[in-house]
Amino acid sequence: MTKILITGATGQIGSELTPALRARYGAANVIAAGHARQPSADIVEAGPYCQLDVRAATALQAIVSTHQITTIYHLASVLSAEAEASPQVAWDINMNGLLNVLDTARLHHCAVFFPSSIGAFGPQTPPENTPQDTIQRPTTMYGITKVSGELLCDYYHQRFGVDTRGVRYPGLISHKTLPHGGTTDYAVHIFHAALKEQRYDCFLKADTRLDMMYMPDAIKAALDLMEADSSRLLHRNGYNITAMSFAPEEIAAAITRRIPAFVMRYAIDPVRQAIAESWPRHMDDSAARTEWEWRPNYDLTATVDDMLATLTRNMR
Fold first, then answer.
1. Which phi and psi angles does 202 have, rounded to 5°?
2. What is the pLDDT of residue 36?
């Protein structure tokens, strides 16, 4: 029987991946674990929940042993802009937390899902149609921990046979949980501002194009990869995946077509702008499409329509 532990279950991805996994595998078989954030009622009341700091190896191993966990979705992480503000903390949580998860998986024979990021690339990476295998060399602490995490997952698979799998997520858009500390957060905040105030001050330049994805596709990617035939996975860790590529001015135009009074202004954050400019504008995800048949469902038009409709309902 599949028994799942989700670290970082109260975060942007975890808050939507947790109910998706509970719906698929049964609520009692999916243990949500969080640390910093106050968990929402639907996370706590719909299935097992526990407090966990992933740097506490003994506590982590006790949870895995007690619940007979077979798969760990390791989502606990300090994000890009937040990591630049506290790089030592980011390294401690992102790397030591992952090492504890991988070693626990080695001891208890668990599979591991580790989300890498577009942030694992750097300014020397080809920015258009970024290849699956290419120079990375990120210039941020977040990116350094992500590319190091990809390598560490590869090591644990090759050295110890741990079934590690992961994707490089682009910027993620979600209506359920507000992001914190990310470089692409504007693509979520803009919807709330458009509906509440009909204006938004964007912290990235108007033409800063980046890969993006709507959260239902991000959840789909995690489920599809973990359920894929292992023999077909040539890369395993750090698959490029994307759904759309746009700049702030383009998403603003899409929202204005639906909310004519909406106005976008710009108040550039130099830290996040520099981070964004070091990332690719569009990744080549053909390896994921070939090896485990990755296909997104949402483009920009479908994302904007669904975000505005869902947020409008939630605000009533």
1. -85, 140
2. 67
**What is the span of the domain harbouring residue 265?**
172-212+244-281+298-315
Q: Are residues 12 and 131 in the same domain?
A: yes
142 is catalytic: yes
Give the count of domains, the chain. 2
What count of other Cβ atoms lies within 10 Å of the Cβ of residue 78?
23
Got the DSSP string for 172-201?
Answer: EE-SSS---S-TTTHHHHHHHHHHHTSEEE
Q: Rounded to whole angstroms, how far apart are CA atoms 152 and 199?
A: 43
Whether 230 maps to a domain, the answer reads: yes
Task: Provide the CATH number for the domain around residue 165.
Answer: 3.40.50.720
The pLDDT tens digits for 38-51 are 778 888 889 999 99
Residue 134 domain-assigned (yes or no): yes
Q: How far apart are CA 284 and CA 102, in angstroms?
A: 28
Indicate whether 101 and 218 sit together in one domain: yes
Cα separation, 67 vs 264, in Å, equals 49
CA distance 215 to 302: 12
Q: What is the pLDDT of residues 191-241, one digit of tens each?
A: 999 999 999 999 999 999 999 999 999 999 999 999 999 999 999 999 999
How far apart are the C-alpha atoms of 153 and 54, rounded to whole Å?
16
Pair (159, 187) in one structural domain:
no
Query: Which ranges of the chain have pLDDT less than 50?
Result: none
Structural domain includes residue 23: yes
Token digits for 199? 């204006």
Which of 25, 49, 73, 142 does the annotation list as catalytic? 142
Number of separate helices (H) and strands (E) present in the chain: 13, 14
